[in-house]
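Sequence only, no structure available. Ideas?
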Amino acid sequence: MNHLKKIFSVLVIVFLMSLFSNVVLTVNAAFNPPACGFSSQSGRTIVNFDRNGGLRADFGENDATQVVNGVFIPAGTYNVGLHSYDNHFDKFNPDQVREQFFVQFLNSGGGEITRSNSINDIPDNTENVVQFVNNGLSISQNVNSLILRHSAWPSSNPNSLLPVCMALDPIAQPPPPPPPNNPPVINFCNSPGTATVGNTATISYSVFDPDGDPVTITISWGDGTTTLGGATSAQHVYGSTGTFAVTITATDIKGAVTQRSCGFITVISVPPPPNNPPVINSCSSPSTVNVGSTTTITYSVFDPDGDSVSISINWGDGSTTTGGSSSASHTYNSAGTFFVTITATDSKGAVTQRSCGSILVKSTPPPNNPPVINSCSSPSTIGVGNTAVISYSVTDPDGNPVTIRIDWGDGTTTTGGSSSATHTYTSTGTFTVTITATDSKGAVTQGTCGSILVTTITPPNNPPVITSCTSPSTIIVGNIATVNYVVSDPDGDAVTITINWGDGTTTNGGASGAQHIYTSTGTFPVTITATDSKGLITQRTCGTVNVISGPGSNPPVINSCNSPSTVNVGNTATITYSVSDPDGDTVTISVNWGDGTTTTGGSGSASHVYSTVGSFPVTITATDSKGAVTQRICGTVNVIAGGNQPPVISSCNTPSSITLGNSATISYTITDPNSDPITVSVAWGDGTTTTGGSSSATHTYTSTGTFTVTITASDGKGGVTTQTCGTITVTSTPPPPPPPSGAKLKITDVDAKVDRSSDNNLRDGETISRDAEPESMVELKVEVTNLFNSTGLKINDIVVTVTIEDIDDGDDMEEESREFDLRPGRDKRSTFKFKLPLNIEDGDFNIAIEAEGTDEDGNDHSDDLDVELEVQKERHDLRLQRLNIDKSKVKCDTESFTISYTIINLGEEDEDKSYVEIINRDLGLNFVQRDISIDAGADDNTFSGSHTLKISNKVENATYPITVNVYSDDGRVSDTKTINLEVVGCDLTKPEDDKRTVTTSSTIYQVVGTDITEETFLFPFLFRGGSLVLLLLSTFALSILFVLVSMIVTARAEE
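Reply:
I predicted one. C-alpha cells follow.
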C-alpha cells in the first residue's frame, strides 16, 4: 500500500507539471557540461546559462522554453554566437534528426536569433559547433531578460541538446553624415544714389552665415572693378562718370555663394577747387645734440585740399633730406650751430616754408652709464588672485629715459611704471621677482626684489589705518621738513610707508615719521601711502608745506647719497646721489673715497676702483659758486679680495677725427688686481679687431665714416673687461661728394590683415578697414624699394620697424626686421605679426612704420608711414581668463572637489547681472552663481570665484567633462570652457537575485529568481532514489502545487 501511495504521488506531480509548466526536463545528477567555448575579448559580452539547469525536450515534447533573467546587454548592433552541447543518457529511441535554438531578447522589440542544425544529430557527449549565427543584430534598448526556446523533430524521439553560452561582439557604427551647408544670408545692401568722380563711394550691408562659417565679401562696382569688402561696408573711388550697378557676393568657407544687387550709383564730375598751399602748424627741434648722434625734428603738416605733401629738410650744414609725415632725422658730423628749415610742397606744386629753430651740436658725450636700481621691495606674502605691488627707485646717471621690465617668477614678464608695478598670481608657490632697467642707449642693470609667497586666500585682508598725519606749515628751502603720523594694520600685517612730498619726490617713511629737504620754494601738498604686506593700500593727505627762501645765500642740498656695501678689489664702485642748490647756483661735487683718493663727481654719480681690501668711509662734499659748502657721509664700502678679479681699464682715449689713410692711435691704462698677464684686443668699429700693446694700439681705416672703438682686456683666467673708448670720425682729404638728391629708400606698399580680413595698398594716414578687438591677430606686410636706377647705389643694412603705439596699457608693441641689403631698383617685403593684448581699451592707435638704411657712399636714407588701427570692443564680452579644479580624480559620491575661475570683462559696458553656470548632467551637477558685477575698462575688470561641489548621481568609473558657462547681462553665453574630472570607486553591479534554500530529510528545494508578481521559477527536486526532476513553474502554478503536495504529505502522515 505504501508503494502504491508513493507511485500515486509521483503521478500526481507529473500530472500537475503537465498542466502548469511549459516542459519537464530530466538529466542525470552527474551531468557536467563543458566551459563556454567563447574566449573573453575587449568589448565582448558573454552570457553563461545555468550549467546544471540545461534545457532539453523529453518524452515526445518538441518545444521547450526557458526565461533567463539578470542579464545586462547594452543597446547596440552585434554579431551573436551560440555554443551548445549534446548530452544523451539512457534512451530507447534514436537521436533527433533536426533541432534548433531560438534566443529572443525581451527588451528589444521582439529581436530573435536562430541556431539551426539541419543534419543528423551529432554523437552523444560531443560539443556542437561553436559559431556565430547572426551578424548585424540590432538591439534598440538595453536587454535585461532572454527567452531560450528549443525545437526538435520528429517529436517522437527524445532530445538533449543543451545551450552552454552566448557571445555578443559589438559592431562599430559609421558616424552620421555632416549637416548640409547653408549659404550666407545678405539681409540688406544699401548704396548712395550719387557720387562724384575721385571721391569715395561707400556701401553698407549686413551679412551672416547660418552655420557660423567665415564669410568672404566681394563687391562688383559696375565699372569693371571688384574688391574685397569689410564686415559691414566697402568703399570705392570711381575714375569716370556714369551709372554703375553694384553687386555684393558673399562666399562662405565651404564654397556656398549668395549674391544680391545693392542698387545703382550715378557718378558725376565736380570741378576741382582752387589749390591751397600746405600748412605747417608746428616744427620743433632739439636745442642741443652730440656729434655723431641722431637728431630728430618733429612737425605737423597738412594740406587743406587733402593733397599729398612731400617734406624736405635743410639741416643747415649743407645737407637736405626728405622728411617723413611727422618727423625727420639727421646725423651731424661736426660741432657748431645750425639753422633748420622745413619746406612742404603739395602734389600740385604749392610750397610753404618755415624755420624749425637752431641746433647746437656739441662734441661726443662721455660713455653711457647704466641705470641704477636704488631700491626694490616686494610683499613677502600674498593670496592667490590678489594684486601684488612692488615698489622701486630707479635713476639713470646720465638722465636717459629708462624702461623697467619685471619678471614675476611665474613665467610672466610685464613692463613696470616709473616707481611701481603690479601683478596677480594665479597659483600658489614662492616666486622670485627680478627687475631689469634698460636706458634709451641700451645699458642694462638687473636686480632682485625679493621672493613672494603666494598662498591660498585666507580671511579677507583689511587695509592699513592712518590715524593721523601732520606736516609743518612753513619751512625754509634747504632745511629739513618732518612729517609725523600714526599708522597701524588691523590684521597685524607689516606696513610700508611712502611719502609723496609734492615736488616730484617720493621716499620711504619710518614707523612714525619721515624727513625731506625741499630744493626750491613753493607750496607742496604732502601725501602718505600705507601698504600692508598683502598689497592693500591706504592713502591720506598730511597737509601743505609752504617752502620759502631763507636770508642770504643758501648752501647746496644733498638730498640723497647711496654707496655699495661690498665690492671686489679691482671692480668699479659707483655711488649715486642727488644734489641741488636752493639759489640755483652752480654746484661742484667732490668725493673722498676713504682710501686717500678724492675725485670730482658727476651730476648724479661717481665711480672709483679700489686697489686694496679694507673698509672705506665715503664722503661727498657739495660746494656752490658762492663758496657755501655741504658735506654728507654716503656709507662705508667693504672691499674684499674675492676670487680671480678681471682687469681694470682705468682710462681709454681716442682721437676725435683723422684723415683717411692716416693712422689712428688710442691710448689706455689697464691693470690687473691679481697681477695676471693681460691680453688687449681692440675692435675698431669697421669690422676689424686687432691685438693691442700694453698701453696703446694703432689702426689705419680704409673708408670714411664714424666708428665706435671698443677695448677688451682678458687675464687668461676668465676675467674679461670691456669698455667703449669713444668714436673716431674718418674724413677724406677732398670734400665728400654731395649726397643724392632726396631719400632713395621708399616704403612702396603696406598690406594689413586683422584676423582674417585683409586691407591692401594702405596709404599714409589711412585707417585699416577692419576693426580689431582684444587678442586680435594683426599682420602687416611692408614693401621697401631702392629708388636708385640700375646704375645707382646699393643701400645696405636696411631695417624696417613697425610700432603700434600706446596699445599695451600705454606701452608700445614693436617689431623689427632683420637687416638686409637692396640693389638699385629692387624691393623686399617684410612681414610683422602682433597679437593684441587681452586687456585693451577702445580707440584709435597709430601704427608707425619706419625704414632706414645707408648707401655705399655712407649716405643715410629713410622713409616713414603711419596708418591707424581702430579697436572696437563688443558691448558684452566676458571671458574665462582662468579655470582650475583642485582635484583631477575623486571617489564616487564620497569626495567633494572645488572649481575656481577668474572672469575678465572685455566689453564696453559694466556687467551687473552676469552669472556662472557649472553643469554635467551625468554627475548631477547644475550649479549657478548669479548677480556677478564686473566693471568695464582695463582696471578692476575681473571677478574671481570658487565653489565646492559633490557628485549627486550614481555613475560609472569614467572621466567626465564639466562645462562652465559665463552669461552676460543680455542673457547670452559669452564664454564656455570645459575641465575634466575622473571619477573612481563607483559600483554599478546589478543586485544579486534573492536565494532562499529549504531542506527536508528527503527533498531539496532551491528557488532562483526575483520576487515579482507572476514570475517564473526553476525548481530542482532530488528524491531518495537519486532522480532529479526540474520544474519550471509560475507563481500561480506554484501556489496550487503547494496545496496539493501538502494534502498528499498529510495523507501519508495519517497512514
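The first helix runs from residue 2 to 20.
Hope that gets you unstuck.
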